Amino acid sequence: MRPIREYAPAFALAAVLATALPVPSQAQDRAEKPVSSAPEPGDPETRRQMLNARQAQAARQQVEANRASQAHHEAAVALNGMAQERNDALYSDALTANAQARQQYRETRKQWERTNPYCWNGDAAKCPADPLPPASGS
């Protein structure tokens, strides 16, 4: 470990620099900022009317944009509703077709079982193939 005497010159230099550099105070900062109390050039009433007209025009444009956006949204919702109704109808038709195909297969299978007692008696030579199940995916 080094003795403190070796660091003494560095501490002395840091202390001199710290006292030599000016530190700005908050009072100086406030005093340096210019405060303008002079009136703006031109007629303030004319300027106010001009700014109000600009703001009113911007408001009208915003209202029109909002109306267009609302109309677009309502059209999209209506299209989505129609697509959903169409999809629901297609799904319902597919379920009905599937139920009918399954019912037809059950009836065909029962008829096949009644007309082919050989299969139940273990005579594989006289037993015809099972009826085909309904086609899947249609």
UniProtKB/TrEMBL annotation:
It comes from the Bacteria. Keywords: Signal. Residues 1-27 form the signal peptide. Residues 49-68 have a biased composition (Low complexity). Residues 24-72, 117-138 are annotated as: Disordered. This is Cell wall hydrolase.
